[in-house]
Structures are given as C-alpha cells and as structure tokens.
Write a structure and sequence with these properties.
689 residues; mainly beta; Maltoporin, Chain A; 5-stranded mixed sheet; 7% helix
Amino acid sequence: MSKPLALLLAGSALAATFPAAVRGQTIDYGALEQVFGEPVTTSATGKPQRATEVPLSMTIISADDIRRAAAVDIPGILREYSDLDVWQFSRGASDVSVRGYNQAYSPRLLVLVNGRQVYLDHYAMTAWNTLPVQLAEIRQIEVVKGPNTALFGFNAVGGVINIITYNPLYDDVNAATIRVGTDGYREAGAVGTAKLFGGKLGARLSASGFDADEFDTGGESFQAPYRHAPQRRALNMDTLAQLGPDTQVGVELSQSQVQQNEFIPNFAITANDYTVRSAKSTVTSATGIGLVEGTAYVNSAKISFNAPQLYPRQFTVENTVMVAKLQDLFKIGAAHSFRVAGEFRHNEMNTAPGTGSNSGGAATIAYDVYSAAGMWDWTVSPKLNITTAARLDHLVLERSGGKDTANPYSNADYDRTLTEPSANLGLVYKATDKDSFRASVARGVQVPSLLELGYESRNSTGSVLGIGNPDLDPTIVTNAEIGYDRLVPEIGGKGSVTLFYQLTEDIKASPGLDFIRTAPIRVTQFQNIGDSTAIGTELGLKGSSPDGWRWGADYRLEFVSEDLSKDNGRSTLGALVSDPTYPVMFEKGTPHHLLSGRVGYTLGQWEMDLFGRYSAAYDMPYASSQASAAVYGSQHVAGYVTVDARLGYTLTENLTVAVQGTSINLSEHDETSGSAAERQLFLTVSSKF
C-alpha cells in the first residue's frame, strides 16, 4: 500500500473506532447562522462560535458579499478590506498578506479550504489561481488576523484565511457562470449538487476555467518571449455521507492546472506551470468522550519554472504533503470546552538539480512533523470568556541523494530537529448586550520552506550556485492586541476598533549575489537577516437598512520598523567578499494608511455596488538587473485610489446578468515593481438550476 493511501485510511480508521453516543455531524453553517442571526466560525479556536464571540480580530466575508463583488477572483475580493494587503504582480498572480509585510510569494498567510492547507510548502506561498473552488460554491471566507499557529500549525503567523464551501449534505448549489472581459478574458464554470440514498449522501461537483491575455504595461523585462498567457482549469468534488445518527464520512478530491507569470522572492519574473492535486477524507463521530474527528489528506504540486535569464533550462519542483490528524472536542460541565489533537505531517520536495558536469543528480529534502495541541475555552461568567490554546511541534529534517560539487553541505548536515511551541490566549468581555471588549496575545512559528532549506541550482552561466541553508532558524511572530466592538442597531450594523503590536524575529530572505564564497564558485544562500516590529490600529464600521442600502468602511494605520543586519547570517560558507543585499523592505514597503469603502443598493431586480480603496505610498524591492538579480534597488509606488463597481439585473428568478469593473477610474496603476495593474471590465451571465 502506498504511503499517501495508508495515511488517508489511518485517519479515517482512528476516528471510526470510537463508539457512537449522540448525533455526530459536521457544522451546518447555514442553519446556525439563521439561529444566531450572524455568521458562525471554527477558525478562531477550533470550536463553533458566533462571530461576535471570537477572542481575536476576524473578518467574515459572506456568500452575498462574494456574489455582489466587482472582482472575479478571491484576491480581488480580499482587496476590498483594508486589513489585507493585496499586490497584483501580473494578471494571473497576486500576493496577499495581513497587517502589512507583503512580498513576492508572501509566506506569512496560511490559506485553507475547509481546513485543508492549500498554501504550498515548496516556497511557503499561495498560488491563488490553483485553488480548485469557484466563487459560486463558497459559503464564506474567514480571515483571522494575527498568529494562529496553536490551532493550524506552522506558518499561520501573519494570519489565516479559511475558505468554507457549501456543505453537500445540507446545501444545494446548482449554478453555471459565463464571463467575458477586456483583453481576451473568457471564463466558464458550473457547480452541481446531488442528494442520493434518501438524502444520506450529498455530492457536489464543480468545474471551471479561464483564459486571458497578460497585462501589456510591464516594461521591457516583462515582455520576455517566454511569458505565459494566464490560464486556469480546475475540478473539485466534495462528498459527505451520513452513515448513521452519530457518524459522517466525507471525501474531497480536486485538481487544478494553471499557467501564469510570477515574481519569485528575488523579484525575477518566471513563467510558471502548476499541476496541483489533493485528496482528503474526514470522519466525524459523536462518542462518549466527545465529538471525534479524524482527517487525512495528501497534496501534491508539480511546479515548472521557466526563466532563461536566471536558469539555463526549465526546472521542475515536485512537492508532496501528507497530513493525518485526530482531534476530540468535548465539554466538562456547562462552562468548560476542550479540544485535544494530535497530528502527523510528512513534507518532501526534490531539490532543483545542478547543471552540467557539476550536478550530483537529483536529491530529496524532507521533514516529518509530530504535533500535539490543546484548547480550553472557559465561560467564566455570562459576560466573560477566556480561551487558551497551545501546541508543540517537533520537526525532523533529512536530505538524501546527490549534490552539486560546489555545495559545502553534506547530507549529514541536514540531520536536524526543531521543537517549537506556539500559543494563543484570548478573552472576550461583554460589558453590555451591545458592547464587547477583546484582548489576546499569540506566538506563531514560521518554519523555513523546503526551498529555503534545500534549494540547489546553478545560474544560467554556471558561475553562481544558489543553495538552501539547513541552519536557518524559524521566524517567530508575537502578536498582542486589544479591541472593542459595538453593535449599532440604529444603522443595522456594528463598529470595531483594534490596536495591535507585532514582533517578528529571525526574518528569512534570499540574498543577492553579493553574498559570495570565493572558491570554487560564487555561492548565494538563504539567511536569517534580522527582526521587525509593527504597531497599528484598525477601524471598521458597517451597516444596512430595510429599504435596500448596505455600506461599510475599513481603515488601517500601521507603522513598521526593522533591524535587518547584513552580517547576522549564520552561514558556514566562510568569509564574505562583500555585504549581501536582500529583497526585503517591510519598513518602507508597508503603507501607513489603507482605507476601503463600499456602498450598495438593491431595488427590485437591480443590484448596484460600488467599492473604493486608497493606499498610501510605499517602496518595494526591485532586482535592478534581471539577468543576474545581483543588486536590489527600491521602486517607489505612489499612493493611489481605485474604484470597482458592479451592476446586476435579475432577469428571472434563476438568471442574472451583471456588468463589473475593477480599477475603472484608472487605465493602469502601479502596485508592484512588476506589471502595472490595468482596468478590467467584465460581462457575467449566471444561472441557477
């Protein structure tokens, strides 16, 4: 039996061994939202909670918000909220971060679909177009701000986005969408749900794809002949079966194929091809010791990089992640809820082989992680609730296979272990029926990516070897915040204020080629380069009226300072010929001010929504020589205001036509040192059946 299949079966079998006592089921988000009159989430603590009761700062984007958005993809929708930084490097590729610290291949945001990681571990990043779900099958997008490693594990350090799809057993989603737009954009998608065996089995199947032309405003370097026209194809299947009154079993399968142009962390452009597959099984059972859930999944990603200015040929990375998790959620008395969990993770990747006669052949870098976690939610009184969560991760690293002759590390140098704790502590005090106060502190852990640990490849001339660093330390993010929320019935909404402080230690980065070992060839590698602090505030206000109006506004003020010491790398390579430069610019690269606003109105069969976003100016790194990426400069991005809009008309109960536009007030504007983002217009026809 293969190892991936064994892990899947093991996760299911462990959960199924507990005897049934009461009805076991997955969360019916729709039913609970109707009961409480507000969204319900599990992304804050691991237990179902009303959105107003979570002990940390959180935004929930509803299915109605998604349907009425002017944007046609998830990063575009996230852009409408000022606590999220969204940079569009090209038509196909965007990077997203929470509370600043954005960069190419942003590593600080863990992205999940129904709790399954879609964040790619090879380079610690999210390729948003590879997410297999389409907008029509998303119930809500849950944005957790700040570290939540104690719940989700490594890399949930800046924040977490958990995309929740409709439950195939409880919800019927049957829809088709056709969309055309400027610059050759064309998209089609369909999703259908079936209930079988008297409603005991629900299955949802979706398929979607788009083609488009690349932005044509990127300058000479972006017009390279090898660049892709962005393209996406995706399939997703989600099934859930009620085996009895106490047990449910679910299986999810997906595949996506994507081609797009990207900026990798050294700010060189690459034309990348992705094939991403996943398989997940879940068993949930109510037992005499609580609600037990066993989950196992396998993610595989094959990514081909094409950048002739950097590498002599295309090279391909293959990354496999296998996870098996068992958890128990139970109560002791009326005031205490507990969650205990254990997890095993196996993560492996082939290292990019060297070139020519210096290549030692393909190699594999891998690690196993053994984790134990717990959560205690204590209702001290009707007004006060305290939540404590802790997790311990033990990582075992190894490398096997050949290596470049100039690589100073042996495979034995990769025999390393890391043991890191993470924790979250939060409280909510309900002063009145309308007023709530929040306070929380969290410690998150971001482990080095597989490429940062074990990368190996010569440049296009063969004169420079890039290698990983097995001695890298994890990045630690400590976050403290206080907040105040007030329900405002007079406007049909709520307001919120949050103050936060964040400390980031041992930032990791890839240097320029100035980081040199003199013999036998020049060598560059990843390093820990310093620390950073951030302080800021977030303000939010939203409301709606019975006569069809809805509106909201968000504002973030943030200041980042950094101490990036060029000589604090822990390299074993010997003397430096010159100081290294790094493509990291968080202090100047995080805008001090972000403001977003939205207003909408429904009148009969018409829906009208307008979105605005203001970003203050910032600077970002830029590889001054695309051929060698040897020196990083700074490119200034001027402050900008963008306006998005959607006008929808319901022709019949099941047929809607909409005209949408993003950045309609600007023909183009700079967000990055890559291609300028262009105005985009769309015509969308959607049907329910």
